[in-house]
Amino acid sequence: MTDNALRFPAEWEPQSAVLLAWPNADTDWAERLGDVEETYIALVAAITRFQPALICVADDDVEAYARARLASARIDMGRVTFITAPYDDTWLRDSGPISLKRNGGGFELLDFRFTGWGGKYEANQDDELVEHLDDQGIFVNSTRQRIDFALEGGAIETDGNGTLLTTWKCLSERHPGHPREELTAKLAGWLHQDRVLWLNHGYLEGDDTDAHIDTLARFAAEDAIVYQGCSDPNDAHYAELQAMAQELAALRMRNGEPYRLFELPWAEPILDDCRRLAASYANFLIVNGAVLMPAYGDKADAEAVSVLQKAFPDREIVAVPCRPLIWQNGSLHCITMQLPAGLAA
């Protein structure tokens, strides 16, 4: 490997910080802002137990308010940094940078186009977020590469060793008419992967991302995958998630062996005005020494903690109450973006 060779690190590798954006009255959270603020406070409290949090705020007033709320919750404010930047909403997994690590030191930030999940929502400010942050010197020892291709961070999952996991539904929705071979080559080239594994099945009601992989199946190690299961034949998700489980069982590692698979439980249906919400336990975030798991106030929460503890035996599993997040069709991983060690100023 040359000094300039790039690698897409796995989420479980050492991190410098987690990047978030604080919800405010100008985001889609306005109608239920109080509830979602409580989730953000709990999430920042969990993150700062293990590493710093970098929080984007829309203006000085939002920063002052967020600072007061976090300080009143006795969060270690020495591990919280605020960054003023314009944003449409708070889904940093999809509007934040995708970080590649350079073998000789340093990083390349891939700044893909963010289209509001295929034009579903306004996203002009979110699409410019990485540039704004880069201009403020938030990232060190790095260069930014703008790529005129729609790709969200929640759509891709890597093992850190050249294997990418993604879903055909999402990428084909973003780029209709482009054959799989072409999209495989593009992803492999930009993300420096030599294997792209596609899932053809799996969906969640209440998900408007067109089946992001981070709601369905996640690497826990190079040889292990955690995935969202469904064991109720009467549930509308049963056929698709069972088919996805079979696809995962058929995947092979480089040595030809199957992956170790960990099936997450399925929460009881959570409804909002008769609309089912996407309560996926697969939308967890790996941080230094821990896994932050979305909890939904369901009896399956405890079982999900147990499954993740088996998948990540050397990490603490921390349940974060995330029920308010799924009202806007995402969860814990969707609102965060980890930054590899050495990237954050």
From TrEMBL:
Q: Does the keyword Hydrolase apply?
A: yes
Q: Does the keyword tRNA processing apply?
A: no
* Any Pfam family hit: PAD_porph
List, alphabetically, the SUPFAM superfamilies matched.
Pentein
Molecular function (GO) terms for this protein are: agmatine deiminase activity; protein-arginine deiminase activity
Please give the InterPro entries that the UniProt record associates with this protein. Peptidyl-Arg-deiminase_porph
| A GO BP entry | putrescine biosynthetic process
List UniProt keywords, sorted A-Z. Hydrolase
Specify the protein name: Agmatine deiminase
From which organism does this entry originate? Lysobacter daejeonensis GH1-9
